[in-house]
Structure formats: structure tokens, C-alpha cells
Amino acid sequence: MEISFAGKRALVTGAGKGIGRATALALVRCGAEVTACPSIRPVCVDLADWDATDAALRDDAVGPVHLLVNNAACASLQPFLEVTPEEFDKSFNINVKAVLHVS
Q1: C or N terminus of the chain, fewer CB within 10 Å?
Q2: In angstroms, rounded to a whole number, what is the distance separating the alpha carbons of residues 52 and 37?
Q3: In this predicted model, what pLDDT tens digit does every residue of 57-82 receive, in sequence order?
Q4: Could you tell me the mean pLDDT of each successive run of 10 residues in the chain, 103 residues long?
């Protein structure tokens, strides 16, 4: 089965390595015009920063998006009861709020 995304724009968050990068590269192989951070056509933005994300997504460089892969995430590797408010906010901002905002 051949999958084609020719003429489609894809936005992939968390494309710097791992699954996000592999996904972005696979979409390119399938013909998509990919905007990713920090890859194919880079849009590097701190997803925890609501205003900066909004500005980056409204930029003409991103354009209309036909396919969104919300892959960006962060993890705090420490015992649950030792998580600080700052670490919790960072995790929540990237793993929850950014997904809603980018979508």
C-alpha cells in the first residue's frame, strides 16, 4: 500500500530526535511538506511559552496545516513526592497545555 501526503502540510512537534524525528522524515518520504522543531523546516519555539507558540504558529512560514503530530513531551525523572511546583508546571505546560494550544 502506498501512502501519499503530496500537497499536504504536516506539523510535527518534538521532531528533534526519536519518534518525532522518524515521523517527520517518514512524512517527507510520503511527499508531505513538513514543519518541525528542530528539523525539516524548523520552527523552534518553547511550547511552554503560550505567546511565543501562538506567534510561531500564526507565522506565514507554517501556513495551513493538514496533519498535526503532537509528539513533544518532557518528563521529570524523580520520585513523585519530590516533584517541585516548577517541575510540575513545566511538565503540565508542555505535556497538556501545549497539546491543546498547538491543536
Answers
A1: N
A2: 14
A3: 776 667 788 899 999 899 888 898 99
A4: 86 89 91 72 77 78 83 89 93 89 83
The CA angle 16-28-100, to the nearest 5 degrees, is: 55
The residues pairing with 9 across neighbouring beta strands, listed in sequence order, are 33
CA distance 52 to 80: 30
Report DSSP letters for 42-82, one per residue.
Answer: E----TT-HHHHHHHHHSTTT---SEEEE-------S-GGG
| Cα–Cα distance measured from residue 1 to residue 45, given in angstroms and rounded to the nearest whole number | 35
CA–CA separation, 84 and 101 (whole Å): 24
